[in-house]
Amino acid sequence: MGAAEVISFDEVRARQQWNSLRRQLHERFDQWLDTLEPQWHEPPATLTEITTTVWDLRQQLTGGLTEAIIQYAYEGERQRKQVSCPRCARVLKAQAHVGRTVETMVGPIELKRPYFYCRACRAGRYPLDDALGLVAGCKQLDMQQAAAKLVTEVPYDTAQSLFGDLTGMHFGSERMHTLTNQAGAGLTVVDIAPSRQEIERRIAEVAAGRFRRPVLVLGIDGAYVPTRPDSARQPCQGRRGKRAQRARWRGQWRDAKGFRFYLLDGERIVHVLSWHQVQNEEQLGEALKQVKEAGLIPEEQVRLCVVCDGAEWIWKHVQTLFPEARQVLDYYHCAQYLHRVAQAHYGASMQALEWVEATMTRLYLGKVGVVLGGLRRMQAQSDEAEKAIANCWDYLHEHRGRTAYQKLRRGGYPLGSGGIESSNKFICHVRLKRSGAWWYEVNSNPMLALRCAKYNGTLNQVFGRYQQRLRETSE
Ligand SMILES: [Zn+2]
C-alpha cells in the first residue's frame, strides 16, 4: 500500500507490443465472424448443428490467428532485404515476395516471404521458412506426427479415413506409408530405447519402500509375422477383359525375433524396453549387445533374470552378455514335453492327465531330480513313448540349473515368459497380423521399430530426430 505502481520501460514496451498483436488478432476474428454470419441462417436447433457449423469453419479461424501471429513475430524476416549465402557467404539481395500455403493441424497458413538467390551457388532460399522450421511439401511436421501416430495403430486405409474424420483434413494413405517408412527406416534398438536415466527412474519407482532390489526380467522370443517376398513387387501382366489373376507370390510366415526388459512390481509388469524385428539370431544378439554396450541397463540396481523356453541360441547370447543374470526355463513350456510323454505312454486317459499334473507339481516344488529319476524308470511300451521320454529327459537335464522353481518363487522371480509373449502380441500381432496383410520386410521393420518406440515411451523423441533430419536435408 502506498507504494507507487511502477511499470518498467520494458514492460510498457512489451504491453504495447502485445496490444498491437491483440488488435491484429481481433481483426482476424472479425473477418472470421464475417464468414460465419452468412452460414447462420436460422438459429441452429441442436448442439450438434451448432458444433457442425463451427467445426466446418474452425480451421479458417485457428489458421488465420496463427497466420497473424507469424506475421507479427516474423516481421523482421518478412521485411528482410539481404542475407548472406550459407555456402559462399556472398551477400544476396531480396527478390520478389513469393506466396506459399502450408497445411498444419490448426489449418492452412499462407505465407508471403522474400526469396534470395545465389547465382554463384545456383541455389535459392527462403530464410523465413528456415526460421519457422518448415519442411518440403504442404503437410507440416505436426500433421506428419499425428499421421504417424495413427498408422502405427491401424491399417493405412483406416488411418486415412480416421484422419479425415477427426481433423477435417485429407492425408492420403500412400503419403502416410512413405512417411512411416522414412521415419522408421534404419532405427536401431538404441534409437528407440529410453535413456538410462529414464530406466533408472522406472527402477527407482518400483524399488521404493522395498527391501530387495527389484527383479528386472529379460524375455526373448519369436513371433510369426506374415511377410511377402520382394518379387511380389513386380506388376503382374494382366489382360484386358479378363479377371485379375491371383497373386503369383506366396506369403511366408517369418520369425520376428524380439526381446523385452520389464520390471516386476508384485503382479504388475512395468515396461522398460522392447525391440522386435524380422531378424535372425545373430541380429538379435547384436541388438542385445548394443543395449549392453550403451550401458542402458543399470545391472547393479536390479536383480536381472532371463526367462525363455530353452532355445540354444538364446542362452548363448545371455551367457556372453549378462553372465550374472539368473536364468529361468519357462515353467509352462515344460508342460509341452510332459504332455507328449503322457500321450505316448498312457494314451488319452485320466492317468495321463494325473501324471502330468503330479509331475508339474514336483517341478513347481523344485524337485527336478525326482522328475528326472522318474522319467528314467519309466518302462516305455513303444518306440514313440521311448522317444518322447528321452526327449523330455534331455530337455530337463540340459536346463536342470534353470528349474529351481521353488527358490525362484521365493526370490520373486517369474516362472513363465508371459511378459515377452504379451509384448509379441501388442507390438507385433496387433498391427502386423491382419487379415489379408502381408508385409514386405523393408516395411515391416520400420513399423515394428516405431511400435517399439511407442511402448518404450520414445515415439516423440524418435519423431523429433526424424524431423531434425528432414530439416537438415531440406536446407
Ligand atoms: Zn552462394
How many helical stretches? Answer: 19
Rounded radius of gyration (Å): 31 Å
Strand content: 15-25%
Based on Cα principal axes, name the global outline. Answer: elongated
User: Could you say which small molecules are bound to this protein?
Assistant: zinc ion
Helix content: 40-55%
Task: Describe the overall structure.
The mean pLDDT is 87. Helix 6 packs across helix 7, helix 10 (281-293) packs parallel to helix 11 and helix 14 (368-377) packs antiparallel against helix 15. It contains 19 helices and 10 strands. Strands 5, 6, 7, 8, 9 and 10 form a 6-stranded mixed sheet that branches. Strands 1-2-3-4 form a 4-stranded antiparallel sheet. Strand 1 (82-84) and strand 2 (91-104) form a beta hairpin. With 475 residues, it is an alpha/beta fold. Bound molecules: zinc ion. Zinc ion binds next to loops. Residues 85, 87-88, 90, 118, 120-121 line the site of zinc ion.
SSE topology sketch:
Blueprint: H1 9-39, H2 47-73, H3 75-78, E1 82-84, E2 91-104, E3 107-118, E4 123-125, H4 127-132, H5 141-151, H6 156-167, H7 173-184, H8 189-192, H9 196-207, E5 215-228, E6 252-265, E7 268-278, H10 281-293, E8 303-308, H11 312-321, E9 326-329, H12 331-346, H13 350-364, H14 368-377, H15 383-398, H16 405-410, H17 418-432, E10 439-440, H18 441-456, H19 459-474
Parallel strand pairs: 5-8, 5-10, 8-9
Antiparallel strand pairs: 1-2, 2-3, 3-4, 5-6, 6-7
Helix pairs in contact: 1-2, 5-6, 5-7, 6-7, 7-18, 10-11, 12-13, 12-15, 14-15
The structure holds zinc ion.
